[in-house]
Amino acid sequence: MRAGVVPSTRTARIAVLARLLLRIGGRYASRSPQLVFASVDRRRELRHDLALRSAEEVAEELGAMKGAVMKLGQMASYLDEGVPETFRATMARLQRDAPPMSPDLAASVVTAELGGQPERIFARWDPLPFAAASIGQVHRAITRDGRAVAVKVQYPGVAQSIESDLRNVALLRRVAGMAFPVLDTRSLVEEVGERLREEVDYRLEAQHQELFADYYEDHPMIRIPRVLPDLSTGRVLTSELVSGAGFEELLGWDQRERDLAAETIHRFVFRSLYRLHAFNGDPHPGNYLFHGRGRVTFLDYGLTKRFTPQDLSPLEDAARYIAVERDGEGFRAALERAGFLQPGAPVATEVVVDHLGAFYGTALRDAPLTITPEYASALVRRFFDTRSPLAPYTSIPRTYVVLQRINLGLYGVVGRLNATANWRRIAEEIWPFVCGPPSTAIGEAEARWLARRLPGRPDPRGAPASPGGAATDL
Amino acid sequence: MEPLTHEGLRPLEPLARALSRAVPLRPGDDGLFGPRSTVWRLHRDRSFPVAAVRSLMLQALHPLAMAGVAQHSDWRRDPFGRLAATSEYVLTVTYGERAAAHAAAARVRAVHARVRGVDDVTGLPYRADDPDLLLWVHAAMVDSILCVAERYGRRLEPGDPDRYVAEMVRFAAIVGVPADQVPGSVAGLAAYLASVELLRATPAARDAIAFVLDPPDLDGDMRATWRDLGQVAIGTLPEWARTQYGFPAPPPEAMERETVRQLVGVLDLGFESLPGVLEARQRIELRMRA
């Protein structure tokens, strides 16, 4: 029948077109900016009817400790246990219901920062934000040269009010005490403070995002949206707009997809740490977009910590001694050198290995291991266990505070995915002191990516970029 | 939705229920004042708890008002429940429909009709429905809300304080103070407050206020927060009132706007995490924007 021919022809034509598009766009089937723009639409989740219309309304909503406390809550929201469920639920709700800026107020920030009305600066500007950010909101736009972008706009005045809130350390501690009755809140408060101070300066975030984007350029699984520096300032951050599935959506995909996504997240965190010497301190479900078959876009570089080879050296030693050489004394000495453990603490080395070795639990055995929510919670509980025999002798040196999020955030995320992998083999690929062979399909793809990388880039394999640094003796 | 932490905020739960009940879901009318009034604006300010404590401290300085409470109320058994009842009354008259406001006022009048006695300290007889006493209680509250809002609340326009005092005349009238006796301007309010005789902190008042400033139901960080709040309330009292109680003035840094806003913000965030609070506030906000 004729009628049957037309659709099949059309289908064939569409298929050809689709393949063509795939080829043109590379791994992330490129789509027109208009399509990307149209596909990112979560505006209905925001309470536009309660939009903040002035800096004063912003201060009422986010000043007076509210921003700082919501940040505490945001951190709590991805700790699996150790904080009351009620607190997490409450904070999630407060954050969800935090009203956006009105179109006029958001436009006034863009105008002040970029020197013109957003409708003039951009070829297309969505006056309503499509997503909330902790101290701002994100608008869709298309640049005058035709790129679909996400424009993060900071609430006016929030930087000053957060600065003032953070100076009130006593009150912040008290809030943390109310919210986290069982935890040692000191480190949390310091962490939140540091995090917020860095987060209010979008220039710093742009710099960090570019660091990651440069390193992972052309990576088969990991995508970092590029920053558009000409359209970014201290309070406005413009980067490529990416569409993909959110974390909740991923939870509905099959286990294979979840395993692959978890593997990529895991690789991203540890490769960044061991090879790029940087940690993006926010392993938070809201900061990923999933594209299937293990491909993940990583968003939000608001808190990034960079390490010197000297910083990392004792951490690498600790991993090597506990996981590879099985040398308890060496492990203990490395932790002492890093400042995690007081030298000469009256505690048997077996106790040290037992308690602190747990944080290397995924890398100890060469076998597939499922990271469950229970595993993640146990780690969090252990982390905050003030009754442990080691507790009086351990502390977290300031340099490594941000790494707490590996234990608190990363495993929380991977645990929610119930992901299985041979994490040990993956770790061996990444550990500079092992440089193991590719152990999974993603590992193979990554190895090809490494081989393709242009000469002159910091070599992600083998010795670190700075020859003669303290890390060369590893 | 569960509260912030179960134990710490439990005392505030009656206050949350009061707000939730007082602000109607689908109101048939705009109530006594309406969404454009200064009354609506000032009564939703987050500094309201400071105003409430200041209010109680000032009101208690009238020995006859204090005697009525001391001799007829078992508020000590459930101080936050009692505070919630007062709060629900204020909020219902503010944001409720006209009928709800009048019904609430009628209930208050019925209770007042039964409250009478003789004050131990002055030896004077009192009646809770005495318009003079009711006016004192009203004026102390209006003065407190205004004073705290001006120092710690959202920005007010130049004419707002006078408008507020004038709008609040109705508030006094519905519980039985003849409207022509109620001050209708900031100057009139100040003159009235200066004219009231007999004011002093009786043992009953000192006792009650000590309890209000440090209620036994609170513990830990919540207690510390409430006590700091009480210090701010003390700091906003006129000097004569503060000296009556024998409280020293809090250090100036504790009274700074930003510091107090942060303190109030912490309490408020806890309060807002209780069921129904955010929703009730959104109902108010949306009507004020409409």
Main features:
heterodimer; A: 474 residues; alpha+beta; 5-stranded antiparallel sheet; 3-stranded mixed sheet; 20 helices; globular; disordered N terminus; B: two-stranded antiparallel sheet; 16 helices; 2 strands; 2% strand
**Residue share in helices of chain A?**
40-55%
- Poorly predicted runs of 5 or more residues of chain A: 1-8, 13-30, 77-82, 459-474
Strand percentage of chain A: 5-15%
Number of helices of chain A: 20
Q: Could you state the oligomeric state of the chains shown? A: heterodimer
How can the largest sheet of chain A be summarized? 5 strands, antiparallel
Rounded mean pLDDT of chain B is: 93
According to DSSP, the number of beta strands of chain A is 12
Report, as a whole number of angstroms, the end-to-end distance of chain B: 27 Å
Number of helices of chain B: 16
Molecular shape of chain A: globular
Radius of gyration of chain A: 23 Å
Distance between termini of chain A?
72 Å
**What is the CA-based Rg of chain B, rounded?**
18 Å
Helix content of chain B: 55-70%
